[in-house]
Amino acid sequence: MEWFSGIGIPQVICPAVMSPCSGLVHCSFRGTSRLELMEKEIKHNVLSYSKCGPRYLWPSISNYVLQLSSSNDPESPIAFMYFLDSGGGSYPEVISSSQAGWFKNISQEINPDSRVPEIVFWHIPAKAYRNVAPWFSVRKPCVGSINKEKVASQEGELGIMNILVRRPSVKAVFVGHNHGLDWCCPHHKLWLCFARHTGYGGYGGWPRGARILEITEKPFSLKSWIRMEDGKVHSEVLLSS
């Protein structure tokens, strides 16, 4: 896509009109702003399910939830997937207390009895990841293949992890950010997982791969593994059953 190439990168974006995503006039860092990245993603990627989140959570943008429905009944959820903006760039690297409150409220609204399993995604790992990180090689109870750097966590913990560990329906959290980590480790009753560096940008020369999630409906199970660019598969782990 042209807007991802050099000629497609604008200079400085300072919206002069109210944005449908933020509701605010705001200049971000030089280059493509966070707001424009999300708007372009939604407009140009027909396979994307990305959404702009509630305006009152600004400057965080991509806070939303998706329902994964039963193949037999589109109205029957088999899992909820929550996406939270963990900041970075010109914004603090943190999930705010307002975002934590949003998650608590929306999860209670759509899944009041915690009957439906929930999976959570954001980019920069929470401080809890540092507490469970393997010391050297990845060993049980953790599962993974590379542990080549220290966890570069968020700047603070403002409540989201306390909410997640107390909510029985939350099965796992998935993050990125650290290209030299791809493990999953248990934390209380849920799992904390890294993805795998997939694209050709960013730092590090580790072999590229992708974290795959497989959800089985009846009975519910959540399984994950790493598929490498050459097709090899490793680090399979059962995250919930």
TrEMBL record:
This is Uncharacterized protein MANES_08G054100. GO terms for cellular component: cytoplasm. InterPro entries: Metallo-depent_PP-like. It comes from the Eukaryota. The lineage of its organism: Eukaryota, Viridiplantae, Streptophyta, Embryophyta, Tracheophyta. GO terms for molecular function: hydrolase activity, acting on ester bonds.
